């Protein structure tokens, strides 16, 4: 199987990345427009303007064995035991009950904080996608060892490493202002699950990409020396 | 770069053109031009040997070390 050049795996992946890029632009633009509209019209009810976050529910830890063995059916406590402390502002349902809390809110500030979290995530996602497209473009042309690619990889690695703590901070703010003390399940408070096991592997991945970018930079130097050897 | 290539001086002494030298040495005109203009980062011994044979000279006639440039670089 041909991996580099025209009609190769790299070429196929470049096409896939291009398609994902344009679809992502459309989806993200629509979502931003929708959320901005929902934020600017706090009185209106939008079925789709919801907040969905990974949540930590203490009570579930106690009954986890029951949950695993099927004695505790998530659907039975979905609406029965989960309570909103402010029903006029929070209408909720729980998806995948153990991990995700999904609810609608009339508060513009809540939606704004949520939009900030999503915007940060989308910015990093699009930045990485953009640079990957450029890198795969050079793989299709069989010219991977160029200064631009080393720089792109370094920026991807740095973006991953830098944004994860910021995302962690924003989720913490979201938890503090929007989630905490607003819901309870079996009488236990519900809060955003900010788990280190979710962030550390991603930061590790960012560091790996940073190191590989340095390998690329050395590769560029070697190529230049090889080309200028007579 | 503290290594100065005096290939053009030697070529003028031997009255040989770039094209002819490239052909007789067995490298491309583009590569010989890189060497002549001082852009080359390295020279293979085999290339140096061929050039010396064709121009009937010593490596020292083609390459020169400039100490002042070297001190500037470091």
Explain how this protein is built.
The complex is a heterodimer of chains A (230) and B (74). With 230 residues, chain A is an alpha+beta fold. Chain A has one domain (9-229). Chain A contains 7 helices and 6 strands. Chain A has helices spanning 9-40, 58-62, 64-68, 74-78, 108-140, 147-179, 196-227; strands at residues 50-57, 82-84, 90-95, 100-105, 183-185, 188-192. Chain A has a 6-stranded antiparallel β-sheet with strand order 2-5-6-1-4-3. In chain A, strand 3 (90-95) and strand 4 form a beta hairpin. In chain A, helix 1 packs antiparallel against helix 5 and helix 6 runs antiparallel to helix 7. The longest helix of chain A has 33 residues, at 108-140. Chain B is mainly alpha-helical and 74 residues long. Chain B has a single domain, classed as lambda repressor-like DNA-binding domains (434 Repressor (Amino-terminal Domain), Orthogonal Bundle). Helix content of chain B is 62%, strand content 8%. Chain B has 6 helices and 2 strands; from the N terminus they run βαααααβα. Chain B has helices spanning 7-14, 18-25, 29-36, 45-55, 59-62, 67-73, and strands at 3-5, 63-65. A two-stranded antiparallel sheet of chain B has the order 1-2. Chain B is globular, with a radius of gyration of 12 Å. The termini of chain B are close together. In chain B, 16% of the residues are buried. Classes of the chains: A alpha+beta (230), B mainly alpha (74). The interface between A and B is small, with 5 and 12 residues.
